[in-house]
Amino acid sequence: MSIENIYWLILLIPFIGFLINGILFSIFFKNYSKISGFVTVTSVFISFVLSIFSLINFNDKGVQLLDSFDWLMIGDVGIKTGFLIDPLTSMMLIVVTGVSLMIQIYSIGYMASDKGYSRYFSFMALFTFSMLGLVLSKNLIHLFIFWELVGVSSYLLIGFWFKKNSAVVAAKKAFLMTRVGDFGLMVGILFIFSKGQQYLDIPTLYKGVSSGEFQGSGLLIMCILLFLGAVGKSAQFPLHSWLPDAMEGPTPVSALLHSATMVTAGVFLIGRLFPLFESSSEIMVIIAIIGGFTAVFAATMGVVSDDIKRVLAYSTISQLGYMVLALGSGFYAAAFFHLFTHAWFKALLFLSAGSVSHATGTFNMKFMGGLRKHMPITYVLTLLGALSLIGIFPFSGFWSKDEILGHIYLQNSPISMVLFILASLGVFLTALYMTRVIMLTFHGSYKGGISSENSSNSKSEDNDHPTEPHESPGIMLFPMIILGFLSVVIGFLVNPLIDLGFVSKHAFSHFLEHNLFFDDPKEFHFVFEVAIISTILAILGIVSAILVFKGKLNIKNNFVYKILINKYYFDEFYENLIVKKFFYNKIGSLLSWIDENIVDKSNAKISDFTIYLSKKMSNVQNGHLQSYGFVFFMALTVLMIVFFISNLNTGDSWLDLINKLNSEIY
Amino acid sequence: MNGLISIIVFIPILASIIILALLRNDKLIRRFSFSIVSIELILTIFAFSLYDKAKGGIQLVDFIEGWIPIKGFNANYLVGIDGLSAPLVLLSGILGAAAVWGSWRIKNRVKEYFALLLFLQGVVIGVFVSLDLLLFFIFWEAELIPMYFLISIWGSGRAHYSAAKFVIFTLFAGALLIIGILAIYLSQGINSFTMVSIPELNLQGIPELMAGANLLIPVSIIFWLFFISFAIKLPLWPLHSWLPDAHTDAPTAVSVMLAGILLKMGGYGIFRISLGFFKNSSFNFDIAAPILVILGAISVIYGAILTIRQTDLKRLIAFSSVSHMGYVIIGFSSLISVVSINDTLALNGAALQLFTHGTITGLAFLLVGLVYDRTHTRYIPDLGGLTSKMPIIAVFFLIAGFGSLGLPGLSGFVAELMIFLGTFQVGNIFAIATVIGVFGVVLAAGYTLWMIQRSFFGNKPSKESPVSKDFETLSDMHILDVLPVLVLTIPIFVVGIYPRLLTDIIEIGIREMFLL
């Protein structure tokens, strides 16, 4: 089997899973819908095994460019399908299929009693397929195609419970806000195309950049537009507000969306087009600042939210901010190392949140508490994930986050100092909100879960959730345990500080830099003082969260709290002010008015005028012979007068004129 | 294969005469019509596949010289297909089948209904295959007759008003068209109705003759006469106001035909005549093209914003057509920079957009018809939560919606992408208009998803809504509706996944139009 076919299989097998589940089990064999879980798990598993195989193969062969067929061809302008296999792709294949596999297994348990079981698994397979296509694409157009398919899969999954209005609204919001980013990406691609049609091919684009084809005034605008795409997809400021709402979907969806697919697409895009971004120092600064700002900005909102999944969502935005910050500062390998570790522990945290809500029926942490006794395995696993996210030695998040912090620290410029302070502040806030989650959920006493939430909302809905929470079934715990294990070790294992024998020093970072655009091998350092600083900050965060939980510190009900709980009023600003008040009510109604009263009415006016004219004209034909005769003679007289007057100066005699008139008439 | 195209044109027309003259039984008429459009679909697919891409040019030509026996009057019967018209003939076959198959519920005056619908299909195909201007004009005008009756008899709401409005607008377009045709025919050095050159028949077409002709009236006047005529049909802002009314009040199948193929007559004319006749003439596109691209961009945005505000499902889709047809004009305007075939990406995209919009919007109208049959309302605030009662309709509605918002993998994306890529690189005002066009896609996502959310998602309609009373009794798609829905859905996917099935043929048509 040629290597190209393996990539086709990796890509298409989940798609086949989608078709089988979406057509066979959703329509024709509804009674056998339980099989659909296994279909998706199997297809993703095959892709995962093949991805590992391709990674091993990659280590032998290095970067591969595989062209297939011309997807579109007008004259010599063509768009070729093909695969670009570089370290980034190889890594992403593992992340996407690996994380997805764990989540699909978990879903078999989590979604067991849902009516849309087959539909769920078909969408999940589609989601995996789209993300795989995105990371494999060699061509910007195909990258965009899969980029959009990722968007639509997440639309379908966020709005999976279509009867729930909030879910549908959240799905629409996610799709539309990322579409604003896609607008930028599309126009950016148009810019690239206008520089030369061959640059749609990404390796050719790299060559074009290195030979200086992309310099000049247009570069910054082009890069800003492309970056806008990443901002939308990776929920960076100011297009961040869709991600917390995207919690409305089933929890495994959030796990997948926040770890390996969708939001990582934006970071991946920056990595894919890294040489282009790197050629403009201005855009790099913009990227770094947006990333650094988002890292802190999102974390602040995470501190006050009571919904466990929302806190995790804000933490995703914040962590993506770190990755974007790293990319903007030029640390390609560090950014993707963090993406790699983050994928595993964030998936774990979401699955834990799902496990918690499986037991309590709610995501509101106010009604949890004390779960440590009831679900000890989930507790330990959540703790592992949280410590990894906070970045405590030796969990995986520690290594990747410190790599980013250390690099920025070593950069030693005024801007990097600001960024370093932002990033460190982020570390403190991360520790704060994650500890708060742990305390509210697992410590203290149990507050009754969904039943007390319903009674506090004075709803009289029945619920069949047991008042006594219980540990989740094995099919859910199994993937969580694997993810928990990875959260602990994977950071050190793949990118160790020292030669481990089977893994060499900084293996992951060196591996990532073996791509098409980095020529000189870079030095990677572990900065000891940064590790100390960040650990101190993290511990500070943990301690303050515990103090707040114990009631020693009061953060509620002040001005800052109000702003944070309202998410800095961004939803209000976008949805109410811009979309509703300005766009829909002002511009929309203006155009409606124009359409009805000018465009359409002008037609009515023309037809009115025609009718008026025809009425007047018909008056002339009144049937009276004498008036016809009168008009006839009057007209003749007028014509003759005109004739004579016009011939006055010719000097002809009266008789000549009569003759001339005669000859003109006949 | 000579005769095939004539057969395709006249089978539906003959069938409509047979229905009127011979058939009495409603059931028989229905079956007869179903089989006629099925045969027609097979024949159009056959004709499309017969087109030899390697050979190019006009193929499957039927030619009767001087079919109007007046001395010195050079009107011929000349039909055939080329790369531009072949996809549109196929589209007409598909849409005609969907419209007739989807009309099995019609109970009122079955005989006249199917006769008119078949006649409509025949004459519209006639427009696409005519290569003689007089014949083209006859088919162009003949389309009005069935349309008027179809809207005013089987329509709803202000059907008579809308039918009359449609007729007046189209007649006006026809009047401009005939002036343009006569001005060309009567010009010194032309004296011909032949729309393309066919070397095998020793026919010199107007595109060739235009260069050396001594035109009766200034060339720019002739250009705009034709263009305005086609722009009304397309429709282009600000000549669109007939469209929402006609669409909203027409019966389902007629809306399908109207959006699916009748609008494409305008688009086809723009390519065949506004481009084909004038690009070798002395007409200066340097002024016209920027005007066109601005009008196109206005259509896109204006149409999209008005779409957002609509509360009637059909009217909403109608306004979205205004927006989508704007892309055709944006892509068309890129003709200004064409030097080689490599610059024609946007023109190919615009021609492809005619096809893709036909299937996507046709599907949308068909599904709205299905919803209306069940809920008896198209008023969006009265709908809601339909997915739980009609999941399969919802799936197809989602497909139509995603097609309309340009989702990759579906055909609309490919056409719009080609238009964007090709027009943006022209630069200046064209690039700006393209960016506006790209933004139109964002708006398209907005109005489509909002519409789907309000009508199909959520729990159930509000208590005040008339639908909520019988909500529990609503049913999903009938087995007979699967066929028309599928015949429209399949091309949406096929072209979206592998667009070269169409673009390879369209490219030939565009290439020959520029004599590249």
Structural class of chain B: mainly alpha
Distance between the termini of chain B: 27 Å
Q: What summary fits the major beta sheet of chain A?
A: 2 strands, antiparallel
Distinct helical segment count of chain B: 19
Q: What about the largest sheet of chain B?
A: 2 strands, antiparallel
How many helical elements of chain A? Answer: 27
Strand content of chain A: under 5%
In helices, the fraction of residues of chain A equals over 70%
| Major sheet strand order of chain A | 1-2
Global shape of chain B: globular
Approximately what portion of the residues of chain B adopt beta-strand conformation? under 5%
Mean pLDDT across residues of chain A: 83
Topology of chain B as a string of helices (H) and strands (E): HHEEHHHHHHHHHHHHHHHHH
Largest interface: pair, residues per side: A-B, 49 and 58 residues
What's the total count of β strands of chain A?
A: 2
Distance between the termini of chain A: 95 Å
Structural class of chain A: mainly alpha
